[in-house]
Amino acid sequence: MTRVLIIEDDTQLLKALRINLSARGYQVLTAADGATALATASRNPPDLAVIDLGLPDMHGVAIVEGLRGWSTAPIIVLSARHAEADKVDALDAGADDYITKPFGMDELLARIRATLRRSAPPTGVPTVHTESFTIDLAAKRATTSAGDVRLTPTEWHLLEVLVRHPDRLITQKDLLREVWGPAYDTETNYLRVHLANLRRKLERNPSQPRHLVTEPGIGYRFTP
After folding, report:
1. pTM for this one?
2. Is CATH 3.40.50.300 what the domain over 3-119 is classified as, yes or no?
3. Alpha carbon of 129 to those of 25, 143, 163, 205, 211: distances in Å?
4. Which CATH number fits domain 127-222: 1.10.10.10, 3.30.70.270, 3.40.640.10, 3.30.70.20?
5. Contact in structure between 197 and 126 (CB atoms under 8 Å)
6. Partner of 151 for a Cys bridge, out of 12, 155, 157, 191, CB 3.0 to 4.6 A?
7. What are the pLDDT digits (tens) for 99-116?
């Protein structure tokens, strides 16, 4: 049973989320503040976390960072904040998706399903070697000369799309649709944030990437 941790201080919304997810076969854990959430996650590591940014004791981004420090479980952020900077901060901290309030329950459930699909281990994919890093996509393992590198589920999905098509230019729109879905084909900031994180983790010189290359205004290319 997939375990989902919901972190939300709105008691009515928290109850609605718990009921809807439980009815669909998820094991649901809940928390109304950040301290309880982090303690709950440490005792019962979730397969996915849904985090509200506006919590009474700490900012939701701090919880994202706290979870991401030891877990690769997918994270979906909920917030009434619509500013691009808030989205970038959450994604940069390690969130995999961002939903603004108000939202439809069906949309959230679809996002959860899609995020869990992206985090599932792929099968039948090769090990990819470059001069800077090695990627075993089947095992979800990335290594550099410094050792193993932890990647988030979204970073894995984005990297997989690129390395499956070496030396091929993949447009921003195609990447966004493949990784986040058709409703996100203009959210180019998502790509900037996650590609920057991948370069920082994998490239020898992130400011001058050798393998994860940007084609300005068009898209991205993986060069072995």
Report:
1. 0.66
2. no
3. 39, 10, 10, 17, 11
4. 1.10.10.10
5. no
6. 155
7. 988 899 999 999 999 888
